[in-house]
């Protein structure tokens, strides 16, 4: 490093096998204008505290692994630079998730929520004739065609990297751990908007449920902390519109 400075980085430590509760430990870290928080944690682990635990992978704000709280705000460690802080940083695991060890949290509920909304194209196949697949390759191909305008409807919502920052920012998830949450609801809306998908009715059961879109109180902080500018608050509120439509259509539908 050139033109080095030093910063005090305070990191929350917790080993459930030996600690009764989490505690903060201070480390002096050298840095320059290019040093990211992920670099700083690497220095601490390599030079000062080899037992420090944290998640990381790509170092390029793509994998979403290195989410953590920086001075109380959810951020990606690889996109956070020491040069932007004045001599002190407090690093803690993502809020609203159970701590497994140090900066590593249990994301089980988050993963289960993502799986529950079926984040993939559903039932996109050509119709059958007399129980056999349609022979027309062109018809089958037409089911996967998409215009730029159709892509644009959901493109922004497809940029989610599943980092969990929006869950750490969401006060409703903090109060109700069963809330499906902004990222999962955003992905559900993304696939509901995709013209190639036919699974909206399955997803709306979750969106309409007690832990679905109506649990959101629209604080909007989830969109503020999103590193990819996905706008989960917008997706969730568009989901509320679709949910309201479902309710109205159900009321107007003739009873059998």
UniProtKB/TrEMBL annotation:
<dbReference type="GO" id="GO:0046872">
    <property type="term" value="F:metal ion binding"/>
</dbReference>
<feature type="domain" description="4Fe-4S ferredoxin-type">
    <location>
        <begin position="151"/>
        <end position="180"/>
    </location>
</feature>
<keyword id="KW-0001">2Fe-2S</keyword>
<dbReference type="InterPro" id="IPR036010">
    <property type="entry name" value="2Fe-2S_ferredoxin-like_sf"/>
</dbReference>
<dbReference type="GO" id="GO:0009061">
    <property type="term" value="P:anaerobic respiration"/>
</dbReference>
<dbReference type="InterPro" id="IPR017900">
    <property type="entry name" value="4Fe4S_Fe_S_CS"/>
</dbReference>
<feature type="domain" description="2Fe-2S ferredoxin-type">
    <location>
        <begin position="7"/>
        <end position="97"/>
    </location>
</feature>
<keyword id="KW-0003">3Fe-4S</keyword>
<dbReference type="InterPro" id="IPR025192">
    <property type="entry name" value="Succ_DH/fum_Rdtase_N"/>
</dbReference>
<dbReference type="Pfam" id="PF13085">
    <property type="entry name" value="Fer2_3"/>
</dbReference>
<dbReference type="Pfam" id="PF13237">
    <property type="entry name" value="Fer4_10"/>
</dbReference>
<dbReference type="InterPro" id="IPR009051">
    <property type="entry name" value="Helical_ferredxn"/>
</dbReference>
<dbReference type="GO" id="GO:0006099">
    <property type="term" value="P:tricarboxylic acid cycle"/>
</dbReference>
<keyword id="KW-0249">Electron transport</keyword>
<keyword id="KW-0816">Tricarboxylic acid cycle</keyword>
<dbReference type="InterPro" id="IPR001041">
    <property type="entry name" value="2Fe-2S_ferredoxin-type"/>
</dbReference>
<dbReference type="GO" id="GO:0051539">
    <property type="term" value="F:4 iron, 4 sulfur cluster binding"/>
</dbReference>
<keyword id="KW-0479">Metal-binding</keyword>
<keyword id="KW-0408">Iron</keyword>
<dbReference type="GO" id="GO:0005886">
    <property type="term" value="C:plasma membrane"/>
</dbReference>
<dbReference type="InterPro" id="IPR004489">
    <property type="entry name" value="Succ_DH/fum_Rdtase_Fe-S"/>
</dbReference>
<dbReference type="GO" id="GO:0008177">
    <property type="term" value="F:succinate dehydrogenase (quinone) activity"/>
</dbReference>
<keyword id="KW-0813">Transport</keyword>
<dbReference type="InterPro" id="IPR017896">
    <property type="entry name" value="4Fe4S_Fe-S-bd"/>
</dbReference>
<keyword id="KW-0997">Cell inner membrane</keyword>
<dbReference type="GO" id="GO:0051537">
    <property type="term" value="F:2 iron, 2 sulfur cluster binding"/>
</dbReference>
<protein>
    <recommendedName>
        <fullName>Succinate dehydrogenase iron-sulfur subunit</fullName>
        <ecNumber>1.3.5.1</ecNumber>
    </recommendedName>
</protein>
<keyword id="KW-0560">Oxidoreductase</keyword>
<dbReference type="InterPro" id="IPR006058">
    <property type="entry name" value="2Fe2S_fd_BS"/>
</dbReference>
<keyword id="KW-0004">4Fe-4S</keyword>
<keyword id="KW-1003">Cell membrane</keyword>
<dbReference type="GO" id="GO:0051538">
    <property type="term" value="F:3 iron, 4 sulfur cluster binding"/>
</dbReference>
<dbReference type="InterPro" id="IPR012675">
    <property type="entry name" value="Beta-grasp_dom_sf"/>
</dbReference>
<comment type="similarity">
    <text>Belongs to the succinate dehydrogenase/fumarate reductase iron-sulfur protein family.</text>
</comment>
<dbReference type="GO" id="GO:0009055">
    <property type="term" value="F:electron transfer activity"/>
</dbReference>
<keyword id="KW-0472">Membrane</keyword>
<keyword id="KW-0411">Iron-sulfur</keyword>
């Amino acid at each position: 490093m050139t033109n080095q400075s030093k910063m005090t980085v305070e990191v929350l430590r917790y080993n459930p096998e030996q600690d009764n509760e989490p505690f903060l430990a201070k480390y002096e870290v050298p840095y320059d204008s290019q040093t990211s928080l992920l670099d700083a944690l690497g220095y601490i682990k390599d030079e000062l505290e080899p037992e420090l635990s944290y998640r990381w992978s790509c170092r390029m704000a793509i994998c979403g692994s290195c989410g953590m709280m920086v001075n109380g705000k959810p951020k990606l460690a690889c996109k956070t630079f020491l040069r932007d802080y004045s001599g002190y940083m407090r690093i803690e695991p993502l809020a609203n998730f159970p701590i497994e060890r140090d900066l590593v949290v249990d994301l089980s509920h988050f993963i289960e929520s993502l799986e529950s909304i079926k984040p993939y194209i559903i039932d996109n196949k050509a119709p059958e004739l007399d129980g056999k697949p349609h022979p027309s390759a062109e018809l089958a191909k037409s089911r996967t065609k998409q215009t730029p305008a159709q892509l644009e409807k959901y493109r922004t919502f497809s940029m989610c990297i599943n980092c969990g920052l929006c869950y750490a920012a969401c006060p409703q998830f903090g109060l109700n751990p069963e809330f499906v949450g902004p990222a999962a609801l955003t992905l559900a809306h993304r696939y509901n908007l995709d013209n190639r998908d036919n699974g909206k009715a399955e997803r709306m059961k979750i969106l309409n449920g007690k832990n679905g879109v109506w649990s959101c109180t629209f604080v909007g902080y989830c969109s503020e902390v999103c590193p990819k500018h996905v706008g989960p608050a917008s997706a969730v509120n568009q989901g509320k519109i679709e949910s309201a439509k479902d309710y109205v259509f159900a009321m107007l539908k003739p009873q059998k």
